[in-house]
Amino acid sequence: MDGKNTCLDVHAALTVTLILLTATIAVADDDTPVPADHSQVNTWFNNNVNSYKEQQGMLDHALVTAEVGQTIVKVMKDGSGEFKTITDVINSIPADNTKRVIMYIGGGEYNEKITIPRNIPFVTFYGSPTNMPTLTFAGTTQKYGTVDSATVIAESDYFVAANLIIKNSSPRPDGKKVGEQALALRVSGNKSALFNCKLIGFQDTLCDDKGNHFFKDCFIEGTVDFIFGSGKSLYLNTELHVLGNNEMTVITAQARDSALEDTGYSFVHCNITGTGNGTYLGRAWRTSPRVVFAYTSMFEVITPAGWNNKNRPERDSTVFYGEYKCSGPGSSMVGRVKYTKQLNEEIISHAFS
């Protein structure tokens, strides 16, 4: 951390990416599609994301107002900052705040159960990329309920996180006990973004709950349904790491109930890695899930079938499960279930219209 100016420069770049939260393959403000060549992705991103001062006419008024009057505070475990816990900072922010609060979080492990209430928007968690802090807690469904078991719950709009490890430290479920699901993160606010964050858990690691969300350069680890919810989200250059043991593992459980709902997950230039085999890209937890993988490298952990209807064959006609120009042994279309959509440019352009 080189001081206040560095934090401001980095944050200005981060917040402006909220203009990209449309969860489509073509998501730039000038309709330039994400390039097929992975080596060009960061150039494309940087060309389309500028300082918020240069993009004010494209951002909503509330966001512009928030960025003008940013406050930066330091959270340090050794007491050298203004605060020693993240929760203390959140409790210090007045309800219905209109200005961005950037928390620089020093290295180390913070054992806290953290909630950002809906009435406290414009909160940023920022760690050093060379000394990433770990936010951890051992909450389980049995004690807190599924969505409230998360280590970090971001209910408010305009949440941003960068360079963090967010972990649920509960043990791996053995499949015998009730309520062992344990979330690392729940994002329930609109226009939220995460950059270079590691989300660590087992079952239900990330509740991508509601709203428009953007994940870039992240690492998400889990076993079953480890990305689930009703978000409309774009995952760019993100690693999805499966902790398999040759039992059924599932990456996504997107929760769209109707074709009228404007939600879905897009994974673009991602990598699917891990252990074991028999992993499904997604399963039809709800009636009409919508998930697309494009330009994604898939290791052999992916089962040839690719997708799962959760033993509800009537959902074969209501799901939207698409793949576009993916690679690796797990991307072979041989053996894919019949309701998989092999996408082309025309389908891609209309899939999320």
From TrEMBL:
<feature type="signal peptide">
    <location>
        <begin position="1"/>
        <end position="28"/>
    </location>
</feature>
<keyword id="KW-0063">Aspartyl esterase</keyword>
<dbReference type="InterPro" id="IPR000070">
    <property type="entry name" value="Pectinesterase_cat"/>
</dbReference>
<dbReference type="InterPro" id="IPR011050">
    <property type="entry name" value="Pectin_lyase_fold/virulence"/>
</dbReference>
<keyword id="KW-0378">Hydrolase</keyword>
<dbReference type="InterPro" id="IPR033131">
    <property type="entry name" value="Pectinesterase_Asp_AS"/>
</dbReference>
<comment type="similarity">
    <text>Belongs to the pectinesterase family.</text>
</comment>
<dbReference type="Pfam" id="PF01095">
    <property type="entry name" value="Pectinesterase"/>
</dbReference>
<protein>
    <recommendedName>
        <fullName>Pectinesterase</fullName>
        <ecNumber>3.1.1.11</ecNumber>
    </recommendedName>
</protein>
<feature type="domain" description="Pectinesterase catalytic">
    <location>
        <begin position="73"/>
        <end position="340"/>
    </location>
</feature>
<keyword id="KW-0134">Cell wall</keyword>
<keyword id="KW-0964">Secreted</keyword>
<comment type="pathway">
    <text>Glycan metabolism; pectin degradation; 2-dehydro-3-deoxy-D-gluconate from pectin: step 1/5.</text>
</comment>
<dbReference type="InterPro" id="IPR012334">
    <property type="entry name" value="Pectin_lyas_fold"/>
</dbReference>
<feature type="active site">
    <location>
        <position position="225"/>
    </location>
</feature>
<keyword id="KW-0732">Signal</keyword>
